[in-house]
Each structure stands twice: as structure tokens, then as C-alpha cells.
Amino acid sequence: MIEGMPKDKIVSTIRALLARASKEHNSNEHERNAALRHAHRLMEEHAISMLEVSQEELGSIDREQMNIGISDWKRSVVGIIASLYGCAVCWPTNEKSKHFGDVYIYGRDNNRATVQVISEFVIDSIEREWDAYKERSTRTDLDKNSFCIGALYGVRDTVISLRKARAEFAYEGSTALAVIDQYEKWQLEAKEAMNVNQFAQAPSEVKDLREALFGRSVGKKLRLEPHLENSTVSTEEA
């Protein structure tokens, strides 16, 4: 914990940060993102769950809209991250819709914000790693889609590990189990609130297995914490 500070004071600090991260209380996007990253860093460092922060700070079930285009791997990144934070993801399927290319995140206010921040970080990181890889490669037949799908599966491997660790932690006590149950309840609520029915699914179209395998090794090294937005992995090490 923060040196000399009791847990209830840390929880109060987190609540204040989450309030600052709310669009309702703060119109400055940069400040909102910074406050959200700080709140999650404190929760990670001191093992404080969203459940302890209170329902009031998490807000009501609603949706967040992200414009990320129609790439399935990007949609799937959002869907995978959403599965960690009690949210659900879908998108319009009508190509004539003015929102075609948008992804909707359904869930409670700060859960949605968390999913959006982490998803943007992961997508941006994968694209930067691709650009760096392409610049130094001597090959001319590189396939970006295969690389990005591979990176997606690398991120999925990390998320599966996190979910497994969360489940194992739940056996250690009723409080931990209650937190797991709460995330599952939030996800069910989010799915029930959705008004479009296309769920994010992992893409399967891989043209170049070499690029996919390399992308997967890169994706596995990405850290998912929202406050690490400047710490992409080096593909030199992959």
C-alpha cells in the first residue's frame, strides 16, 4: 500500500480518480485517460478490485462507441479485452449504416472506459510493431493481416492466462470468488443490453503462417495495463 496510508484512503483516492475519468465530470480526454490509468495502477499495486470501489463509481449499463474500421482482428482485440472487464462487444453489420466500422462496448461506465483505453493501446502497439518489422525486413511479400491476426492470438493467450489466474485466485477465499461472480454478472447484463446481435469473433483468414507465428510472439509480449501505453515490445527480441 501507499506508505502509511490505510486501505480505505487508497480506495477513496481511486474513487476520486475514477470520478475524474468520467465524461460527466471531465471534458478533457487526456486528463480522463491519465486519471483512469492512475486508478488502475493503484488497483493493481494494492490488489483492490473494482467491486471494492463500489457500484456507484462504476455507473450504469450503457455503451461506448469506437471507430476502428472493419478489420476483424481489431474488433476481436476489443472483444477479448472486454471479456476481462465484464463488458460485451458488437457492431453494425449493414454496410450502408453510417456507423459501419464502429464497435460498441456495452457495460458499466468505468469498465467500458477501461476496455477502450486498453484496446486502443493494444491496437496501436500491434500496428507500430508491424511498421517497425516491415521497415527492417528484406522481404517484399510480407502480409500485414497475417501478422496482426497472429498478434491478436498472442494477446488472447495473455488474456486466457489472466482469466485462469483470476479463477485460481477465486479458490483462495469468498471475497475473490464474489469478484469473479460480479464480473460474470456484469458481462451478462451487458449482453442483455445490446441492441445489435453481431458478436466479435476471432478471424481465421491467415495467408502467411510465418507472419502469423511471428505476430503471435509479438502479441504475447504486449502488456495489457492501461498505464503502460508507451511501452511496446521490441520485435528485435521476438
What topology emerges from the helices and strands here?
Blueprint lengths: L6 H14 L8 H18 L3 H4 L1 H4 L2 E7 L4 H11 L5 E3 L11 E7 H28 L7 H27 L3 H20 L15 H13 L17
Antiparallel strand pairs: 1-3, 2-3
Helix pairs in contact: 1-2, 5-6, 5-7, 6-7, 7-8, 7-9
Summarize the structure in words:
The protein has a three-stranded antiparallel sheet with strand order 1-3-2. The protein contains nine helices and three strands; from the N terminus they run ααααβαββαααα. Helix 5 packs parallel to helix 7 and helix 7 (144-170) packs across helix 9 (209-221). The protein is mostly helical and 238 residues long. The two termini are 35 Å apart.
Features:
238 residues, disordered C terminus, 3 strands, three-stranded antiparallel sheet, mainly alpha
